[in-house]
Every structure is written in C-alpha cells, then in structure tokens.
Design brief:
Layout (H helix, E strand, L loop, with lengths): L11 H26 L3 H29 L2 H20 L1
Helix pairs in contact: 1-2, 2-3
Length: 92
Amino acid sequence: MATRTKTTSISWSRVINFVSFWAVMCIAIALILAKIFSGNQVSTAFTTIGNILSYIVALATSFSYAYYKRNLWYYIAWVVALVLIVLFIILK
C-alpha cells in the first residue's frame, strides 16, 4: 500500500495573503495601543511595521501587474517607485 505524503507548495498568492493579514493585525494593534496610551513608542513601532508590511503587499502585487504587461516602462516605473518608497521609509 502506498503512503501519502503531504506536500505543501508556497505560492505568491499565499505569501501575499499571509503578509497582508499580519499587516492588518499590526495596524489594528497600533490603533488600539494609540487609543489606550495616546501615542507611545510601542504603538508607533506597530504602525511602522504595519505600514512596511502593507508596502510589501502593494509592491508585490504591483510587480505582478508590471510583469503581466511585459513592457520595459512598467518595470522602470516600478523600480523608481520602489526606490522612492525605501528612501522615504529610511529617511522618514
């Protein structure tokens, strides 16, 4: 008798769903902490983490759109937007 092995495959949609879920959770925690403690550093940290995860989701989905279009200008625009987002997050 053959044994079944459970194989798990990781797809982009599962990764995006996972990251977007945790982005929403971080934003919710940040809003709760900001309401309770009125702007402490912990809520600011959760807000930053939630924003970064949201940016990751937006960048990943936008890259799939640029890939779907298969046009050099979409790739260039995507890279420029990525660099600007990273710079503004770092320079905040």
